[in-house]
User: What shape does this take?
Amino acid sequence: MAKGIEIRDAHFPGRAPIDTYGNGGFRFADMSHRGSILCLPSGIHSWDMDATKLLSVESFRRVLDEATEIEVLLVGTGTELRRLPPELRAALKARGISSDPMSTGAAVRTFNIMLSEQRAVAAALIAV
Assistant: This one.
């Protein structure tokens, strides 16, 4: 017997370039997603983040969990550049991840190029 609708975290189980961004979301792999995303080796995941929230070690937990497969993390901080807090930079560096904050648009473009080069890249993208 059916139990009703099951709500799960949004997840695309693969690596894909970002086709477009804006209007509060992203398009990739013939799909669209409203809100921020993490593009990781395990796939593209919904990310509960926006420009008003603190960038913290805990908000990057999923990235840190996949650190063995990531060399570079591009952080799209929205329309305004935001520095990563020192404790977050230290946690990423301790796991061997080089981090680079930039606007979301620049992060999307850089991610797509590095992905096409088959580099060990990940992206944390705040929706604009």
